[in-house]
Amino acid sequence: AWFLGEVRAAGFTPRLDPAGNVFVRLGEGSAPPILFGSHIDSVPGGGNFDGDLGTLAALDVLQAVQASGRATRRPLELVLWAHEE
To answer: What is the pLDDT along the chain (85 residues), one digit of tens a residue?
Structure first.
């Protein structure tokens, strides 16, 4: 819920699939998107920031590209996997 709030506060509209994965797209067009992000569940030995950092970094990338005003050749799409496995 916290991450969805951050996404909305950044001006994006999150999309959830039936498995609970979150997708956030920047850009238009029919070209396949560039998908990036990570997971938010914990895994043994993964470290304190395993997954979480990749997810937050992906949101930061979307915000930076949007703020630049530049268009990309393909849509960019953040994915937050609900479970790594």
So the answer is: 999 999 999 999 999 999 999 999 999 989 999 999 998 776 777 777 778 888 999 999 999 999 999 999 999 999 999 876 6
What would the DSSP string read from start to end of 1-35? Answer: -HHHHHHHHTT---EE-TTS-EEEEE--SSSPPEE
Cβ burial 15-41 (10 Å sphere, 16+ → b, else e): eeeeeeebbbbbbeeeeebeeebbbbe
pTM of the model as a whole: 0.88
3-state secondary structure of 81: strand
Please enumerate in sequence order all residues whose Cβ is within 8 A of that of 39, keeping only pairs 6 or more positions apart, or say none: 51, 54, 55, 80, 81, 82, 83, 84
